[in-house]
C-alpha cells in the first residue's frame, strides 16, 4: 500500500498550496472555517448566554453544565443511525438541509430572548435547540467527512485533512475565544456598561453562528456541486433498507482489519486523552503546582497537537500511514507513562507535549486513512461510528477517571514499609498509558501493511527519506544460489561444475549471470564493460545500469524459474554492486543497496558462495586467459582490494546465508564443498530461507529479509 495521502517529496506548505488550488475544496474549506468559527463562538456563547439567563451561582452552574451535557446527548441516542444518512442520501443536500435547519435553530435562541420570554423558558428552549442542533450535526459531519475524499486526489488528502484539522481545532477556537472577549469589551465600552439585551455579546455571537450556517448551506448548494458528483450511484444507495444499511456498516467495521484497527486505535487514544483530562487537576496538585500548572499542561497538550498535525507528515515523510497511525498511538500512550512518572513540572510539560503530538498525528493519520481507504458507499457510516464512539469513550473516560481520582486522589498509597508513596492519580495514568500502548500495538498488528519489515529501522529510514520496503509477493519453490567474488576467483568454473552435478541428478537447473543474461542485459553489459570506443559511464550511471540489468534479469529469468521450482545459479548478483559500485567506486553503500533492492523487489538468494581470492592471484588468472581486460578488470589494485574486503564484510554480517571458500584451493575441492552445502539445502528444503507462501491476505512479504537487506522504497500515490 502506498501511504494514503502521503505528501511525497513536496514540502508541507507547497502541498497545502496545491490542495487550495482545487476549487471545490477551497470553497468548502473557507465556509467550513467560517462555520467552525461560528460553532466555537456558539458553543461559548450558548453556555454563557444560558448562565446569564438565571441568577444564583448554583443555577448558573446548572444552566452552563446542562447545556454542555445536552450537546453530547444526541450522539448516544441517535448516533448509530447518523452515518446511514450520509451514505444513503445525496451528501450535498444532506449538508444543505442540515445547515438550513441549524441556521433556524441557532437564530431561534436569541430571537426568543428578544420576545421577553422568562429566563427559565429561554434556557429550556436553548437546551432543546442545542439538542436538535447536535442531532443535526451528527448527520452533517459524516456527510462532510465522507464527501471530502471525493473532492481531492488521494495524494492530497493528508494535506487537506491537515488544513481542516488545524483550522477547526487550532485557529477557530482561539479566534472565537478572542473575538468573544473583544466583542464583550467593545460592547460594554460603547454602551458604558448598560448593554441592551439584543446587543449582549453572547446574543451577537449566536447570530453570527446562525448566519455562518446559512452561508455554508448556500455555498454548498450552489458553489460545490461536485459533492453530489463524487458519490456512489443513487439507485445503489437507496435499494437497501436503512436498517440493512445500518447493519451492513457494522459488519464492514467488524470484518475489515484496517477499519477495526483504526477504530480500536482511535478509541484507545481518546480513552487515554479522557483519563489525562479527568486526572489533570489532581495531577497538577501532585506535582506540588497549582492551577497555573494545570493550565500549562493543557496548553502543552494543544501545542503538541498542533505540532503533530502540522509537522508530523514532514517528519515521517513517506512512511506507511498505517504504521504511522499505530506508532503515534504508542507514542501518545508512552508519553502518558512519562506523565505518570513525572517528578517535576518541566518533565510533565514535555510528557504533555508528546501526548498531544502523538494524538495529533494519530488523528491526522486515522482521518486520512478512513477517507482514503474506506470505500465511498460505507464511508459515512464508518465516520459516524468513529465520531460517536470517540464522544462516548471520551465522556466515559473523563467521568470515570475523575470519579476514581476524586475518591482516591487526595490519598497516597504507601507500599509496605518502604516509605514509597504512590498517588492514585499516577496509578490511573499508568494504567491509561499501558492500555493505550496495548491498543496502539493491537491496532498496528491489525493494520500493518509491511509485515516482517523491522519497525524502528523503517521509522528511521522514513525520517531519512528512504522507508524500508516489503519484498514483492511471490512464492518460490526453487533454490537460488549465487556465486560472488573478485575477478578470476573461479566463479564460472564452480558454477558450471555445480550445474553439471545437479543436472546429473535430473534437477531443473537455470544457469545465469549478471550483467548480460538477457538481450537487454547484453546491451547493458557492453555499455558498462566495453573499453573500446564508447564513453565510460559515470559511477552513478554505472550503478543504475547494473541495477537496470538486474531488474530485468530478476523479472524475466530468476523469478519465473524459482516459481516453477528450478535451481537458479547466478554468476554475480546484488553483492557485486555493493562491492564494486559501493566499496570500489565509493558510492554510498546504503544507496546502492536501496537501488538493488528496489530493482529486485527484495528478492535475495538462498545461498551466496563467496570465492575469496587475493586480487593478485585472481587478476593474474584473468590475464592468463589472454582475452584482454574489460573496463572493471582494468581498475587499480586498490580498487580490487576494496572490492574483496567488501565481499568479506557482507558475508560476515550474515554468516548463515554465505559459504565463504578460499578460492586459491584446487577447483575440485571447492566444487566438493559447494556441492555438500547445496545438497544440504536440497535434502532439507525446510532449511531454505526463501520467500514462503503468504499466510493470509496481508502477509505478502518475505519475513526473512534482514535489516541490512531491507532498503527503502519511494512510495507513490
Ligand atoms: N581453483 C582454481 N585454481 C586455479 N585456477 C582456477 C581455479 N578456478 C578457476 N581457475 C582458472 O582461473 C581462470 C578464471 O576462472 P573463472 O573464469 O572461473 O573465474 P571467474 O571468477 O568466473 O572470472 P571473472 O571474474 O572473469 O568472471 C580460468 O582460467 C580458470 O581455469
Ligand atoms: C553484477 C555486477 C558486476 N560488476 C562487475 C564485476 C565484473 O568486473 C563485471 C562482470 O564481469 P564478469 O566477468 O561477468 O564477472 O562487472 C559490477 O561492477 N557490478 C555489478 O553489480
TrEMBL record:
The Thymidylate kinase-like domain, residue ranges: 483-673
Domain of life, per lineage: Bacteria
Annotated ATP binding sites: 485-492
GO molecular function ontology, one term from the record: dTMP kinase activity
GO biological-process terms attached to the record: dTDP biosynthetic process; dTTP biosynthetic process; dUDP biosynthetic process
Keywords: ATP-binding, Cell membrane, Kinase, Membrane, Nucleotide biosynthesis, Nucleotide-binding, Transferase, Transmembrane, Transmembrane helix, Transport
EC number: 2.7.4.9
EC top class named in words: transferase
Gene Ontology CC terms, in alphabetical order: cytosol
Spans through the membrane: 28-52, 64-86, 163-183, 261-280, 292-312, 324-343, 349-370, 382-407, 427-445
Catalytic activity: dTMP + ATP = dTDP + ADP
Coiled-coil spans in chain: none
InterPro entries, per the entry: MFS_trans_sf, P-loop_NTPase, Thymidylate_kin-like_dom, Thymidylate_kin_CS, Thymidylate_kinase, TM_effector
Function, as annotated: Phosphorylation of dTMP to form dTDP in both de novo and salvage pathways of dTTP synthesis.
UniProt family annotation: Belongs to the thymidylate kinase family.
Protein name per its UniProtKB record: Thymidylate kinase
Native organism: Micromonospora globispora
Amino acid at each position: 500500500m502506498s501511504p494514503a495521502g502521503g505528501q511525497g517529496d513536496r514540502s508541507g506548505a507547497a502541498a497545502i498550496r496545491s490542495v487550495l488550488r482545487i476549487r471545490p475544496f477551497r470553497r468548502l474549506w473557507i465556509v467550513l472555517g467560517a462555520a467552525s468559527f461560528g460553532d466555537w463562538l456558539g458553543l461559548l456563547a450558548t453556555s454563557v448566554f444560558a448562565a446569564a439567563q438565571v441568577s444564583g451561582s448554583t443555577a448558573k452552574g446548572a444552566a452552563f453544565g446542562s447545556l454542555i451535557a445536552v450537546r453530547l446527548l444526541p450522539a448516544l441516542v441517535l448516533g448509530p443511525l447518523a452515518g446511514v444518512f450520509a451514505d444513503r442520501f445525496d451528501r450535498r443536500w444532506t449538508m444543505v438541509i442540515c445547515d438550513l435547519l441549524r441556521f433556524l435553530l441557532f437564530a431561534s435562541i436569541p430571537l426568543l430572548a428578544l420576545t421577553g420570554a422568562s429566563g427559565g423558558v429561554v434556557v429550556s428552549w436553548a437546551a432543546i435547540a442545542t439538542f436538535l442542533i447536535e442531532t443535526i450535526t451528527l448527520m452533517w459531519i459524516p456527510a462532510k467527512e465522507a464527501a471530502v475524499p471525493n473532492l481531492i486526489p488521494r495524494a492530497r488528502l493528508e494535506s487537506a485533512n491537515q488544513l481542516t484539522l488545524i483550522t477547526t481545532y487550532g485557529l477557530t477556537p482561539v479566534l472565537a475565544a478572542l473575538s468573544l472577549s473583544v466583542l464583550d469589551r467593545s460592547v460594554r465600552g460603547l454602551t458604558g456598561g448598560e448593554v441592551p439585551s439584543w446587543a449582549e455579546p453572547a446574543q451577537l455571537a449566536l447570530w453570527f453562528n446562525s448566519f455562518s450556517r446559512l452561508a455554508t448551506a448556500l455555498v454548498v448548494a450552489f458553489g460545490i456541486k461536485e459533492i453530489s458528483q463524487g458519490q456512489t450511484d443513487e439507485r445503489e444507495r437507496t435499494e437497501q433498507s436503512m436498517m440493512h444499511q445500518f447493519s451492513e456498516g457494522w459488519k464492514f467495521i467488524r470484518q475489515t482489519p484496517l477499519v477495526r484497527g483504526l477504530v480500536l486505535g482511535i478509541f484507545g487514544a481518546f480513552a487515554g486523552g479522557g483519563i489525562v483530562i479527568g486526572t489533570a487537576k489532581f495531577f497538577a496538585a501532585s506535582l506540588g503546582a497549582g492551577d497555573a500548572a494545570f493550565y500549562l499542561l493543557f496548553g502543552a497538550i494543544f501545542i503538541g497537537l498542533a505540532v503533530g498535525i502540522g509537522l508530523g507528515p514532514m517528519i515521517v515523510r513517506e512512511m506507511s500511514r498505517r504504521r504511522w497511525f499505530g506508532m503515534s498511538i504508542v507514542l501518545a500512550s508512552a508519553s502518558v507513562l512519562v506523565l505518570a512518572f513525572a517528578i517535576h513540572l518541566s518533565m510533565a510539560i514535555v510528557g504533555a507535549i508528546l501526548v498531544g503530538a502523538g494524538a495529533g498525528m494519530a488523528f491526522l493519520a486515522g482521518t486520512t486513512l478512513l477517507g482514503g481507504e474506506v470505500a465511498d458507499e460505507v464511508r459515512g457510516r464508518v465516520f459516524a461510528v468513529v465520531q460517536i464512539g470517540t464522544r462516548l469513550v471520551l465522556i466515559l473516560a473523563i467521568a470515570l477517571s475523575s470519579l476514581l481520582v476524586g475518591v482516591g486522589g487526595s490519598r497516597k498509597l504507601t507500599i509496605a514499609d518502604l516509605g514509597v508513596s504512590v498517588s492514585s492519580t499516577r496509578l490511573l495514568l499508568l494504567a491509561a498509558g499501558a492500555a493505550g500502548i496495548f491498543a496502539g500495538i493491537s491496532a498496528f498488528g491489525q493494520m500493518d501493511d509491511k509485515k516482517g519489515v523491522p519497525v524502528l529501522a523503517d521509522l528511521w529510514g522514513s525520517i531519512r527519506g528512504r522507508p524500508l520496503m516489503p519484498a514483492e509477493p511471490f512464492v518460490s519453490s526453487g533454490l537460488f544460489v549465487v556465486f560472488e567474488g573478485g575477478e578470476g576467483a573461479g566463479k564460472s568454473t564452480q558454477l558450471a561444475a555445480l550445474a553439471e552435478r545437479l543436472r546429473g541428478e535430473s534437477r531443473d537447473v537455470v544457469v545465469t549471470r549478471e550483467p548480460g543474461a538477457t538481450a537487454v542485459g547484453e546491451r547493458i553489459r557492453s555499455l558498462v564493460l566495453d573499453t573500446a570506443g564508447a564513453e565510460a559511464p559515470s559511477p552513478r550511471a554505472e550503478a543504475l545500469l547494473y541495477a537496470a540489468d538486474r531488474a530485468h534479469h530478476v523479472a524475466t529469468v530468476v523469478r519465473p524459474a524459482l516459481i516453477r521450482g528450478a535451481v537458479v545459479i547466478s554468476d554475480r548478483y546484488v553483492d557485486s554492486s555493493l562491492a564494486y559500485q559501493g566499496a570500489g567506486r565509493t558510492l554510498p553503500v546504503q544507496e546502492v543497496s536501496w537501488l538493488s533492492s528496489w530493482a529486485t523487489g527484495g528478492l535475495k538468494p538462498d545461498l551466496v558462495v563467496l570465492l575469496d581470492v587475493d586480487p593478485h592471484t585472481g587478476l593474474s588468472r584473468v590475464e592468463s586467459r589472454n582475452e584482454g581486460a574489460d573496463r572493471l578488470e582494468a581498475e587499480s589494485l586498490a580498487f580490487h582490494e576494496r572490492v574483496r574486503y567488501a565481499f568479506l564484510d557482507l558475508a560476515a554480517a550474515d554468516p548463515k546465508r554465505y559459504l565463504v571458500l578460499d578460492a586459491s584451493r584446487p577447483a575440485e575441492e571447492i566444487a566438493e564443498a559447494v556441492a555438500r552445502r547445496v545438497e544440504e539445502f536440497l535434502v532439507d528444503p525446510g532449511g531454505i530461507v526463501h520467500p514462503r507462501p503468504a499466510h493470509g491476505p496481508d502477509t505478502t512479504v518475505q519475513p526473512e529479509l534482514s535489516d541490512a537487506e531491507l532498503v527503502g522504497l519511494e512510495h507513490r500515490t
